[in-house]
Amino acid sequence: MVTRRKFLHQTALGSVAAAMGGTVLSSCSEANTETPVSTNAPIKPLAISTWDFGMKANDAAMKILDNGGSALDAVEAGVMVIEADEKNTSVGIGGAPDRDGRVTLDACIMAPDGSCGSVCALEYIVHPVSVARRVMEKTPHVILVGDGALEFALSQGFKKENLLTEESKKAWEEWKKTSKYKPVINVEMHDTIGMITIDKNGEIAGACTTSGLAYKMQGRVGDSPIIGAGLYVDNEVGGAAATGLGEAVIRAVGSFLVVELMRNGRSPQAACEEAVARVVKKYKDYKDIQVGFIAVNKKGQTGGFSIHKGFNYAVFSNGKNEVKEGTYLIE
Ligand code: ASP
Fold first, then answer.
1. Cβ–ligand 1 contact at 50 (below 6 Å)
2. Rounded-to-integer distance, Cα 168 and Cα 162, Å
3. Using CA atoms, how far apart are residues 321 and 309, in angstroms rounded to an integer?
4. Kind and range of the H or E element at 25?
5. Which of 7, 53, 262, 316 has the CA that lies 20 to 30 A from 181?
6. Which of 143-157, 170-184, 222-236, 244-258 is the least confident region?
7. CA–CA separation, 189 and 109 (whole Å)
8. How many CB atoms lie within 10 A of CB 3?
9. Whether the CB of 292 sits within 6 Å of ligand 1
10. CA-to-CA separations, 25 to 16, 19, 20, 168, in angstroms, rounded
11. What is the CA(209)–ligand 1 centre distance, in A?
12. Cα 157 to Cα 131: distance, rounded to the nearest angstrom
């Protein structure tokens, strides 16, 4: 007998196969398809983040959630841990600069009531996510970019700091020797943190923050600060976040797509699979790029899927924080 869940799973695989001309190179594992949660179970706080370093973000978020704090406060505090980590070369301080040696950061945040804020190509500020939150809460706008975003941040009391660490500078100088620029992200350079949290009241919030593609063109903005592309939350349905080549995610309005698929009955896992299929369909060189999605629905079920092997994500639920290996299309 084909259960509804199996049917949906097969449907998603079917679209992946169709998008790839009929072959699914690596099938999607059933193992982490869903966290079984009875529909009547009381909502428990949960945090899900892209990549294994998301564990640290989850820890910080869960401290707040366990004390009855809001999903919004938790998600901001969670990603701030990664923004402050100098060793992480794709988020916040220590992030790889653009080809001119400028560290320009992108971030966004979304609250349960649907309000959102974003900053693009923001320089000198360690916590772009907090500036994005101020944009959401203190201005009539959603997105501020470049100098305007910096001016706003300074007016809000944020301090100007040098974000180019010695290590990142050295790597950039090394890169300059050849200056080969191919807008391709390999697995090692995928460090955007996208995070979704659910608080004890079942409210959902999300955030996404990155220094973007290493050695990008000055002024390049990826998917991460674009609401609907790098992040989307709908308090009635769930939330999703993306990592990988932003140019490909934007074409499919990836995170919004994942949430809409969940609204239409897909599990978070099936929704991520179908969104990757859509990305692949719209990007002919998909074999050269990585894109991954994470998702969680209102019931606390989670999922993650990417084009290539190597994508993982961290889920903190039921008192346990753990890394899950995402399933993928290509070995
Ligand atoms: N999505 C980010 C961007 O395109 C990069 C990444 O996640 O690796 O800017």
1. no
2. 12
3. 22
4. none
5. 53
6. 170-184
7. 22
8. 8
9. no
10. 10, 12, 9, 36
11. 9
12. 10
Examine the pLDDT at 42 and tell me if it is beyond 80. no
Is residue 314 one of the residues assigned to a domain? yes
118 lines ligand 1 (CB under 6 A): no
- Choosing from 50, 245, 251, 289 the residue with most ligand 1 atoms within 8 A of its CB, the one to mutate for a pocket test is 245
pTM of the complete model: 0.89
For the chain, the domain total comes to 1
Q: Which two tokens stand for residue 66?
A: 């366990």
310: left (phi over 0), alpha (psi -120 to 50) or beta: left
28 in any annotated domain: no
Q: Residue 231's Cα: distance from chain center in Å?
A: 6
Nearest atom of ligand 1 to the alpha carbon of 50: 7
Give the domain CATH number at 240. 3.60.20.30
Residue 133: what pLDDT?
A: 98
Could you report the per-residue pLDDT of 117-155, keeping only the tens digit for each? Answer: 999 999 999 999 999 999 999 999 999 999 999 999 999
Q: Which two tokens stand for residue 140?
A: 């009539």
| 168 strand-pairing partners | none
Q: Note whether residue 9 is domain-resident.
A: no
Secondary structure element (H or E) that encloses residue 144, with its range: strand 143-145
| Active site amino acids | 192
- Split at pLDDT 50, 70, 90, the class of 28 is very low
